[in-house]
Hints:
The chain is of the alpha+beta class. The chain has helices at residues 2-29, 57-60, 65-72, 86-100, 121-128, 136-145, 150-154, 157-160, 177-180, 208-223, 244-264, 275-278, 294-311, 324-344, 348-355, 379-386; strands at 51-54, 76-78, 104-108, 227-232, 267-270, 286-287, 291-292, 364-370, 403-407, 410-414, 426-430, 433-438, 448-451, 454-457, 463-469, 474-482, 485-486. A six-stranded antiparallel β-sheet has the order 10-9-8-15-16-17.
Amino acid sequence: MKRRAIILCKAAVFVIILSVCLHFLTDAFRVKDEANIDSGFYHYRDHSFDVISFGTSFSMNGIYPMQMWEEHGITSYNLSAGNESIGTSYYLAREAIKRQHPKLIILDCGTAYWDWKIMSNEQFRHVTDTMPLWSVNRTKMILDLADEGREALLFPFEAYHMRWTDLTQSDFEKNYKAQTLGAALSMRADGGEQFERHELAAEGALNDIQMEYIEKIRNLCEETDTQLLLLVMPVIGPSFVLDQPTFDLRRNAAYALEDYCEQEGMDILNLTDAVDELGLDPSKDTVEGGHMNMRGAAKVTAYLGNYIAEHYEMPDHRGDSRYSFMDRAYPEYQETFQEKRIQTCDQMNDFTDALRDETFRDRYLVVIASGPEACGLSEEAAEAVRSLGISQDLSGWKDQAFIAVLDGGKNVYETPLSQKQDADGQEFTQDGYEIFVKSNIRDAEECLVRINGREYHLHEQGLNILIYDKYRNRITDITTASEKGIR
């Protein structure tokens, strides 16, 4: 009897260890996609977040929980994902209420016109891949909303076991969305054109399938004493996400839903046509006119945070020791925000503004070296480069070698423009860093930067720019400025 008990205990320990190993290995094998919901949500204790938002990539890119904390002391999490349907949001809401018991659920209903229920496996993985495998709501979601390939979604081991050879260090690192509490960050600013506002359809704008799940979420919130705010995010112009006919469907549904909420006594914030009210700039605040970039999202989040503070009794937890985890997390969020600001921007002025930010500039070592077939910058881009402290005018610059090093926002080394190839490069010490820089306008393989013995080959045409974070001891970004812009 004693021997049998020992065997059972050993078997139980083995199963526990195996389950833990499978959990962490499966997490490493999963494809890391920015469109996924953030698994960091599951690491917080109960009652950590008073507000939780759900929706598609429009809300994922447009609602910043950490900004709400900074401005209002509201604790919130963004559980939006790429192509997250309202049906998917329903099961996520069940999961969130069970784990966190929030005071307010924000449901992005911009997809109330969608005429389908079944999701593709690719769309599903944005949600199911980061939920715990043993989650009951995950299982119910798949059985309800998936059609083919349910087994692969329920048990994703087979889908990932071939990724052994593709694994990199980043697969074992924490996704940056853990620092943003689920929000996606991008500083791209390539919008411009705006949607036309056509006459609204008289009827038939709302889809019965989507309304069924809106009602399910409404009932869930009533049963659990959770407040519900329906939201329609602003979309300014045509992009790969929405074209004009699809926007018309979305806009018709938004106003039909507004009428429905008025009749039913439900709360809704319809921002479809609130471009001016939000202060959005179509040319600067969006990614291709669709998703909000970091500048646009800051405006949307400020508006939403004010709305929540005015319409709901939401406690300000700043200074509350029970929520000190937010204070501890905020500096790391600021660093992540700044890093993504640099890495994702595509406008030279935004790039140099980020490097000159007084909060962070002391930490940056910036090395500039011209690459092969170097060609001049635009007048605007050249002026932006000079704002960093560069003395040379790089507008109209062509096939000339150039090297510069900036440390903490100060120009510590700069060569004059030259058409001669520097065969030896320049080597010196700056603030304890051994730096070697070689600019070559003929041979791409010879244009390189070496910092403390580690080499970085810069092969692109134009002005290669390497940014080294001295506080984190790692590269923040390597990018290129040319007559076509940056990156």
